[in-house]
Amino acid sequence: MTSSHTLTGEEPEHLTPAGHRQAQVDPLAARRAPGDPPWDVYLTGTVFLDIIFTGLDSAPVRGTESWARGMGSSPGGVANMASALARLGLRTSLAAAFGDDHYGEYCWDALEQGEGIDLTPSRTVPGWHSPVTVSMAYEGERTMVSHGHEPPPEEPAPDCPPRARAAVASLTPGRRAPWIAQAAREGTRIFADVGWDETGAWDLAGLPDLEHCEAFLPNAEEAKRYTGADCPRLAAHALTEYVPVAVVTLGSEGAYAVDRRTGEAAEVPAIAVQALDPTGAGDVFVAGFVTGSLAGWPLADRLAFAGLTAALSVQEFGGSLSAPGWSEIGAWWRRVQSLPGQDPMALRRYAFLDGLVPRELDRPWPLRRAVPTIGFRRSS
User: Fold this and answer.
1) CATH number of 275's domain
2) Is 11 within the bounds of a domain?
3) What pLDDT score was predicted for residue 18?
4) Do the beta carbons of residue 335 and residue 92 sit within 8 Å?
5) Which domain holds residue 327?
6) Which residues contact 146 (CB under 8 A, 6 or more apart)?
7) Beta strands per DSSP E along the chain
8) What pTM was computed for the model?
9) pLDDT tier at 52, thresholds 50, 70, 90
């Protein structure tokens, strides 16, 4: 099933006034049973401190000084996906190394205390500097500059990860991650993305852990290069020879997915929004797709939900703390239905939200947003 109907999701007003409360929603409530794994999703990777500049009129020019109209700081790297999953109500466990500097302390607190993410598999490394990324957003794109020291020996990626319903892995060409096979043997469903292949080989045989994965979620260019197809939709079908579910993100066109097991194919267009910062949008998309998959939704609903969460995230600063929670999703759904001129077919594409979004709000909303400055001194 495919869809060509577009929906305008840009909000004419800010929907986070003081006093709103964040609702507790458990998208897996109907599927929980005694003896289930303690965690819904397990992740491992590197946590960065992200510093984001927005409101730049153009790319920085050598020899000049540019002033940004907006700035935010938040945990980044693998924290983007961990926070997105936690805000969607999934019990999330993260294994990562944290520096013992103020940046590391801030990231640990934001993830553990602010987002409720389990950091039991993580550790603080004395004397290790936290990796930092500066992201500059302009003209709908971003430019990043990162700095980091060599990761500490035995950076957390245990060969025996905690029991979880699912895990999200970022595959590295030419390398196996032993924990992926171990998790798969324990029944964990593996969802994988991949970065740019710096070797230029673009060989699927160079992604040996793909054999353990249920779903693979590359972008259009990556999918075409790995398969040799000249169309991302054909590339998605070709990828199902290697993995049961292939999801290819199409940028401003939305996303396309194929499930080899059921024969389903779905395409959902992107939601038109005014983007402030695209940092972490791909991670939020994966988090939305994982949530729908664990909840057992049809493929098209999973794809639509993933695109929606990503669209909402780009309207805020940062990758991790821009991820939407259920109250924000509910506010969007109620608001978008009231906007004149919407395509009825497009609205029906998101009708599955009616049984999910909260009516009552019972927690602070939003939980936390990226702020320009971290570490303000408290007044006595």
Assistant:
1) 3.40.1190.20
2) no
3) 31
4) no
5) 37-57+68-152+161-354
6) 48, 131, 132, 133, 134
7) 39-44, 47-54, 70-77, 92-95, 97-99, 123-125, 132-138, 141-147, 164-171, 189-194, 215-216, 245-249, 255-259, 264-268
8) 0.89
9) confident
